[in-house]
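Hi there. Long-time user, first ticket. I'm pasting a complex I've been working with (about 605 residues overall). I'd like to know whether the download I got is complete or cut off, because the file seemed smaller than I expected. Thanks.
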Amino acid sequence: MRGARRLVVPQVLRDVLAQRSGRIGFVIVCLHLSVAVAAPMITPQDPAHQDAAAMLQSPSWAHWFGTDRLGRDVFSRTLLGGREAMLIATMATIIAMVWGSALGILTALIGGRTDAIVMRFVDAMMSIPWILMVMLFVAALGSNSAALVPVLGFSYGLSVVYLARAAALDFVARDFVVAAQIRGHARWSIALTELLPNVRDSLAVQGAMQWSWILLAVSSLSFLGMGVAPPTPDWGQMIADARGIMQRAPWALIWPMLALSSLVIGMNLAVDAWARATGVDRNRRVPGA
Amino acid sequence: MAAVLLQRIGLALVTMVIIAVVVFFALELMPGDACSVNLGRGASDSMLAACHARLGLDRPPIWRFVTWAGDFLRGDLGISMQRERPITEIVGWRLRNTLILAGVTSVIGIPLALGLGVLAGLNPDGPLDMAISGVAIFAMTVPEFISGTLMILVFSVILGWAAGVVTIGYKAPAFELVKASILPAATLVFILAAHILRMVRASVIEVMQSDFVQMARLKGASRRRIIWHHVVPNALLPAISIIGLTMAWLLGGVVIVESVFNFPGLGRLAVDAVADQDLPLVQAIALLFGLIYVLTNLGADLVALILNPRLRTRRQ
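Hi, the file is complete. Here it is re-exported in full:
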């Protein structure tokens, strides 16, 4: 098994790229990631530079995407606008995946009353809409992006518990798990060596999906003024900022909208193709997610 | 039947208690409390002590939780920090407005979703299904604040059919709010319908391949009879519980959509309360949303029990 696994990784990528939607999604996501990484080197202008003489200018050679209501260059801000949100989403996804899958796999393995109690709690917490959950914490901690990471990591981990548990339940009654139990292995060791390798694909696909959901959450919060704070440029914040001037300067609104939508749509296409390639059931939906 | 019913109601109660515990103790775990957050860093010790005494924050947390939850049951939501008025007074009208928005959304969205879902499911991968499913995937992927802003851009700025933002106050008469909720409700319908119709579509496809539909086809029933008497009732039953679960999403979406359209409801109030760091108000709204969610889910469960005899005898 161990030798074969090394070959599986490029095979999965090949399977994704063999599908048309997978190809489109993969290219969009790669493009976004490389722009995010390279943005500080390639932005033509200082994104925070305000120019009272160049407010609300339509696209021109000097400002490819025009300028916003403070005379800032929309092109530079759009290139940079995804970085902070992507960074927050990446860190929050790691937190959510780690605690969510650990708890989900363990509770599936332990079963019985513990399982019932844990799932009742998870159920109840998921019935509070995520945004209110996050707002509860933002109200207490004040809005800063460092506080968003653990808060989002916690809230979005709840649905990971659900999924990890469901995926692990398919295996807990199998012979190899029972055998490990009879051999006297500790629970955490069974979870790590017997269950985790089997649910790895489902969790990986779920992780990619979580990333795009958390990215949307961060952007939505920035839109509401609770996420990425100025002067750091951010798509959600740019959209909120340009809403009042959409009649006079639609370009300040449309570019960040296109950027965020294309990233999320690309991510969805890629993840769907990935799920098909690995045979993961994407329709096993989590309530409330 | 009675046992299943009692079990559902019991579960709803337990869920509600857990929500209250989480909403209350999540803030207990945070550094600072309503007073220190509200008074800011410059507050002196005596000011903090006076504020603690006024709000009863000097008492033990368990005692405060019990009084807070008890007061909530009696309809007293506490006092807002920033607005210095009873929360019940602030929340009342806005709760009505949000319910109007959610009502308009459900009345338009749910039948639309069921109809489109059945249409798409009857001819999977046909041109109609491709169009419906394509739009649905777009609606589910793009965040609410972008689809809402697009609605304003298209229907208000470009076409000029409806006012982009709501300008009426929160005490406006109900029929004016129904008028004002056209664009916000359209945004919510767009997304809500997408979620439900995907489920209905999958359900219809499954039922179409079932033995009893095959049987009906073989005995020579007309296509119309098969669809209306065999497929639709069986495919829509599972959709009822999905509608209940979609409420969690709808309530979250309401917060953003209300902010986009400046709609004077509970969701926008929550955003304002967070901006003012008004902790008691945020807690009260979170608890109210939890309550609405639990009640709608219980309602959906009961409707499903009434319509679907198969569920009545199933035990956990």
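A couple of notes from our side: Chain A touches chain B through 46 residues (CB under 8 Å). The mean pLDDT of chain A is 82.
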